[in-house]
C-alpha cells in the first residue's frame, strides 16, 4: 500500500511531462516567443511543469494527511532518515525526467507523429521504471535490462529508499547513477537542441 501511495505522489509531482508541449511549440514556431526570454528553455518548461506538479501533490496531500493522522502506523514504519534520503533522490529524479521530456520534445521537431513518440515514452516509463510493479517482481533478464536504463532512476530507485529496500552503499550508487544519467543526457540534449535551433526558420526577421 505504501509503495502504491508513494508512486501516486511521484506521478502527481512529475506530471505527464512537457514533451508534447515542447514539440508543438517547435513545430508551430511558438518556440520563438520563448527564445526571446533570458531564461533557458529547458528550465522554463521544467518550472512550469513543477508548478503544476506541486499543486497536484498539495491537493492529494489534503486527502492523504488526514488519513495518515487517523492511521499513524502507515507513517511510523518509515523512519525520518529514509525521508531525508528520499528527497534528494526525488529532486534528481525530476531533473532526469525533465531532460528526457525535453529531448523527446525536440525529437518531435523531426517527426510527423507526435502521438507515436508520446506513446513510446509512456510505454517505456510505465514498463521500465517500476512505476506500477516493483522491478524486484520482474524476471531476472528483464530486471537486469531495466536496471541499465535511466527510467528506473525516476521511480523505482527513489521508492526503494522510502521502502527501506536499499542500504547505504546502494543508495549512494543509485544517486551517482542518477547524476551520471543527468550529465550524459544533458550533453546529448544540448547537441540536439543546437541542431534543432539551426532548423528553425523565423518569418519576418
Structural commentary:
Helix 2 runs parallel beside helix 6 (80-107). The mean pLDDT is 77. Helix content is 74%, strand content 0%. It is an all-alpha fold and 205 residues long. It is globular, with a radius of gyration of 19 Å.
Question: In brief, what are we looking at here?
Answer:
The protein is mainly alpha-helical and 205 residues long. Helix content is 74%, strand content 0%.
Overall average pLDDT = 77
What would you report as the Rg, rounded to the nearest angstrom? 19 Å
SSE pattern: HHHHHHHHHH
| Residue share in helix | over 70%
The number of helical elements comes to 10
Keywords:
globular; 205 residues; 0% strand; 10 helices; single chain; mainly alpha
Write the layout of secondary structure elements.
Elements: H1 2-14, H2 19-28, H3 31-35, H4 41-70, H5 73-76, H6 80-107, H7 114-128, H8 140-147, H9 156-162, H10 168-199
